[in-house]
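Forwarding the complex inputs:
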Amino acid sequence: MHRALTRRPIPTSPGTGSGPDVISVSTLLCEHAADGNRLRYDVDIGAEDPVSEQPQRRPVVVWNTTNRCNLKCVHCYAGAESEPKAGELTTAEGKRLLDDLADYGAPVVLFSGGEPMVREDLTELVAYASDAGIRPVLSTNGTLLTTERARELKDAGLAYAGVSVDGLAERNDEFRGVDGAFQAAVEGIESCLDVGLKTGLRYTVTQQNVDDLDGVVDLLTDVGLDRFCFYHLSYSGRGETLDSVDLDTDERRSVVKRICDRTVRSHREGDEIETLLVGNYADAAYIVEYARREFGEDAARRVYARLARNGGDPTGERVAAVDCLGNVHPTQFWRTYSLGNVRDRSFGDIWDDDSNPLLRAVRNRPENLTGRCADCQYRHICRGGSRLRALAADNGLFGPDPQCYLDASERHGSRPTADAD
Amino acid sequence: MVERTERRRVDDGDRAPNGREWELFVRSEGDDPMRHVGSVRAADADGAYELATRLFAWHADDVWVCPSSAMTRYTTHDLAADAPSVDPPADSDEPRNREWS
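Prediction (whole assembly, two chains):
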């Protein structure tokens, strides 16, 4: 068995917590970074322990603070534009929202956009969130992250900055619609590293940039980065029409295997990078199967037990989103449906309103799943994956996620959970 | 005691960062009330209806959609503290705030 898997006993008691929303390849396969923050979410927020032993009872809230962006990414889930939308939450309203979230007990607020760094009050809002007891983290394209601004944000209490890069220079800049975006993002990452602000890569994998993935990891490793988050494409915003560039099943299996292989190899070589997979819970099942293949049945059971604590795709439960106009969404990607608006009702009242039949159903998914998900052995650690992609593929609200890449033998094979200790 | 309820008028137009927002109401059985179940984003009423049925068809018999821009919300919630305040009626005769005895 690989030494990394035996370095420390893995707690295996099931049902006591709420496993990862980001799926940490390094933690699950290499026992990496098991201390620190114990919050779970579907967005990368820089937690040092992406596999929790504790349940997360309140959602991480993604706040898309503005619809304005300085880039023009073809896959933007928010459909961001160069100008702000009229009626975006003001600084004062934003602070009241943060109070609202703090009162409700939201553990983390992820400042996103558009590009959140175009908001001149970002540092002020980060400081306000931090003072209110919410962990402030940032999702940014990195191009505006000068050393000075990185330091300001860190001093304001920012806990993490995830920086999006989607290919090497030529491909990234084409994808992002602006020449020089790649270099500016790399410099942004360097700024974070210079001032000691925890940072990581966000890379949305598509057919168009999959070939650059290793090159980007190599380049950023040389810069000093050690945290890499790989996103599956979400079918929303401008990404809604991009299913033609999405990976097919074989490509997806291949790239996930590459990421697993690279992670394990780097740990064997003593280079402990963190790698995370985000946005497709078939990955959870795949990693169980990978652990069985590479390390044996006991390892697979331990990995399953850890994943089972959380229960897969967090839509409508452990992640929520508030858009720039105050609309509350079940995830940051589900832009076409809103549960309510924080200008006329508190976030907590909206989120706790179980009279909403859709919210109830989404929170009770494994019982409702149809098609090949209905009897899949992994439905409790995946929860059917993305409802948004299922709807986009006309599979229905409870139908299979078209990005699921498990084969029939994986869906119906031995049950690693049945006698997990 | 009668509380004077101070509400603010939230009238923020379309309420969709992209496209148009439609308030959504569904009824699950004929003798149920219409229930507000959030809003959907679509180009027109038929698009909103189509999206609504994909989300709620398993639950609802009847579906109504209304442009969000046509909805004016009067709220006591304080996030909209900068919005225009609406004076309570002079007699404050609002039964839901009256302590009946």
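Chain B touches chain A at residues 10, 12-13, 15-18, 21, 26, 28, 35, 37-42, 51, 54-56, 58-60, 73, 75, 77-83 (CB under 8 Å).
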